[in-house]
Amino acid sequence: MEEQLGWRATPYRAPVLDVEGRPFGVAESLLGDDEEDIFHGLAVKTQDGRLVELAAAHVTRITRSGVHTDLAGADLATLPAYREERWYHLGWGGLFRKHPEWKPGE
Predict the structure, then answer these.
(1) Is the Cβ–Cβ distance between 16 and 28 less than 8 Å?
(2) Averaged pLDDT score across all residues of the chain
(3) How many CB atoms are closer than 10 A to CB 40?
């Protein structure tokens, strides 16, 4: 059994695996509140090119080799489209997003 990682240590573009261990996409962005240490889920680019939201409740574990989920075949089609909607206006300071984006090389 591979070592489990915390959500902040999710590898960039990690494969996202269904309940059988088959990849169905790659992790594109962490969804969470870094200050509060709350993991909401992932934005996942599926193999058919859709960008979907994967709720944290479906993530069973995160390892260096991938993000393991409890999703099976038909469940994958029901994942909602990812929506970029959690922006907060900070006056003159611009916009702050509570979902940290990964940067290449992290």
Answers:
(1) no
(2) 82
(3) 17
Cα 21 from chain centroid? 17
**55 in any annotated domain:** yes
Count the domains in the chain.
1
Residue 88 within any structural domain of the chain: yes
Domain extent at residue 64? 7-97
**Alpha-carbon gap, residue 15 to 27, rounded angstroms:** 6
User: What are the structure tokens assigned to 62, written together?
Assistant: 């995160």
**What pTM was estimated for this model as a whole?**
0.78
pLDDT tens digit string along 37-85?
A: 888 888 899 999 999 999 999 999 999 999 999 999 889 999 999 887 6
12, two tokens? 């960039």
